[in-house]
Amino acid sequence: MSLRVAGLVAVVLAFAGLYARALTAPSAAGFVVARAPAEARSSAPRYKAQLLPNSSAQSVHSATAVETSGGRLRAFWYGGTREGASDVALYTSVYSPKEASWSPERAVMTRELVQRHLKRSVRKLGNPVVGRDRDGRLCLFFVSVSVGGWAGSAINLMISEDEGETWGPPRRLVASPFFNISTLVKGPLVQLTDGTIALPVYHEFLGKFGELLRLDSEGRVIGKTRLSWGNSSLQPVIVPHSETEAVGFMRYAGDPPARVLMIRTGDGGEHWTAPIKTALPNPNAAVASVLLAGGPLVLAFNNAEENREELSLALSSDFGNTWRVARNLEGESPPPRAPVAEYSYPWVMQDSSGDVHVLYTWGRSRIKHAVFNRAWLEGGGR
Amino acid sequence: MTATDVFGLLGCALMCLAAIATALRLDRFPARVRHAVAVIAIVALFVPAGGLPLVAHVRGATGDLSVPTLALAASACASRILGRSGFAPREWNALLGAVAVAGLFLYPLALGLTPFDPYALGYGSAGLVTALLIATMAAWRAGLNLPVLVVVVAIAALLAGAYESRNLWDTLVDPLAVLVALGRWAAIALRGMGNAFTRGKS
Fold first, then answer.
1. Would you call A16 an interface residue with chain B, using a CB distance cutoff of 8 Å?
2. ipTM above 0.95?
C-alpha cells in the first residue's frame, strides 16, 4: 500500500471515530428542579445568625455550602493572609442544626496539594462551589491560578463519596481555548435530567461574560452554552423553575446605572435571552438566588450602587419580573459591625426542613451564617 | 500519575527542548555536544525544583499543547539535535496557514467578542467535523502530508483520551502555534513585499 493510500485510510478511520463521537454526544437535557422540602417546623418567625469559626486565616471569602446527612450543612470557603496570597487554602466546617453551631474549621485543600495532584504549578486558590451530582456525591469545584491574577484562573473539581470527610484528587477542567485561562465559578451547579451537570461559570480575561458548562458523570466538560457576551456580566447564578425554564442573575460590571442582570431560558438552557437590567442595584458584586418550595424566588444582593455595606434579601413571585426588598441582613443591623464594612459574596439555599440559609463574607475576616424560616423572611422589617 | 499528565508533561518537555536547541543553535555543534546538551536539558526539566519539576511550571503556564505545536517542537528537535530534515517548507506553510486562520477565527469569538462561541462546536459538532474533513481531504488531494498527519494524530489523541480536554479545538490549535504561524506568514508576506519592491526598482 502506498503512503498516499495509507494516509487516506488513516483519515477515513480517524473521521469515522470523530463522527461516531459527534453522533453519540448527549442531546439536550432538562433541568432537575430542587425537590420540595417538608413543611416548616414552625410558623413563628425565626432568625439566628453567627460567625463561622476562623482560627487561622486573616482574610476569608466566598462561602459555599451543601446539606449533608442528618440535615447538617457543610460549608467551604477560602482563607489566608490575604486574597490571592500563596498560603490561601480551602476550609470546611459543619453546621449542626440540633446544636445550632459550627465545627472548628479545617483545611481541605492547599495550594501545594493542588499543584502536586495537578502536576503543574499553582500560585493561588480562589472561589469554591459545592454541590451534588446525580449519584449523591459531593462535587467541590474551585478556582486556581498558575500565572497572573484572577483573569488567569482555571477550574478544578474534586469529589467526595463520604459527605465531604475525604476527597479524591483534584482534576483540571478545560473550558477555554486560550491557555485554558480565565474561567471561574461562583454560582451553584444545576443537575440535568440525563445525569449530567450544568455549571455556571464566567470569564474575566479581555471580556467579562457568563457561560454554562455541561459536565458528564466523571466531571469532564462535554459542552458549553453562552449566557452573555461582551465585557460587563459575570458570576451567573441559575435557578430552574421547571424542566425547561430557568432564570439567571449576574453581577454587573458595566456603565451606570448599576443593576443586577437577569437572563432567561425556555428550552432547558440551550438558548438564553440577552441580559436585561432588573430594578435592583448592584455595586459590581456577586448575587445569590434560590427558588423556595412553592415560591417565591429569593435574591441576596448588595442593596447599593457604590458599595457592599448593605446586604439584603428581595422576593419575587413572578420569577424575577418584579421584586420586593424583604429583609436587610447587614447595613442597618445593630453592632457588632465588621471592622471593614463589606458584606458580600452571598450563598443562599433552602434545606430539607424548609429553613433558608445565607452564608456571606463578613468584613473579609469571617464567614457569617444566617438561618431563618419563611415566616421571618416574608414578615418584613428586621 | 494519569496518562493525560504523562502526555501533557512530555509535550511541554518536548517544547522546552526545542526552545533550548533553537536558542543555542545546537545544529552548529558536533553531534556529541548536541546529544549531551539534550540529555542535560531533559534531566534538568524533570528534576524537582521547589517541589515541582521545571516542566510542571511550564505546564502551569501553557497547559497541554496542541498537535501542531508538538509537531513544530519535534521538527526543531529533529533538525537542531539529530541533524535530520523534516517536511518541506510548503508543507509547513500549509499547516501554519491553517493554524493562523483557525486562531484568528477562534480566539476573538471564544473570548467573548460576540454571542457566537465557535469553541463550543469542538465538543461534538458534526458541522465542525465536516469542515475539518473537507480541509483535510483538500490537503490530501494537494499532496500535503504534514497537515493530514497532524489532523489524524490530533483526532487519535482526542479519541484516546490523551488530552485533559474533550474539545477538538484544543488538539488542533493553541496560542503558541498561532503565534508561530502568524510570525511565519508575516515573514513570508514581508519577504514577498520586499521582492516586489526590488523587482519594481529593477
1. no
2. no
